[in-house]
Design goal:
- By secondary structure, this protein is mostly helical.
- It has one domain (9-44).
- 79% of the residues lie in helices and 0% in strands.
- The chain is built from three helices and no strands.
- It starts with a helix and ends with a helix.
Length: 47
C-alpha cells in the first residue's frame, strides 16, 4: 500500500497549499487583502 501515499490526493495537495501560504510572507498576504478591501470601499465611495 506504499504506492498509495505517492498519489497526489486532494488532502495532500491542500496540505501542500497550506504549507506554501505558511511559507509566504504573512505581511505581504495580509497587505494584499487589506489593499483589496480599501480599493473596494474606495470604489463604492464609502471612504
Amino acid at each position: 500500500m506504499l504506492w498509495l501515499k505517492n498519489q497526489p490526493t486532494p488532502a495532500t495537495m491542500l496540505g501542500q497549499t497550506m504549507r506554501f501560504f505558511d511559507g509566504m510572507d504573512r505581511k505581504l498576504f495580509v497587505g494584499a487583502f487589506l489593499l483589496s478591501w480599501y480599493v473596494a470601499y474606495k470604489s463604492m465611495g464609502l471612504l
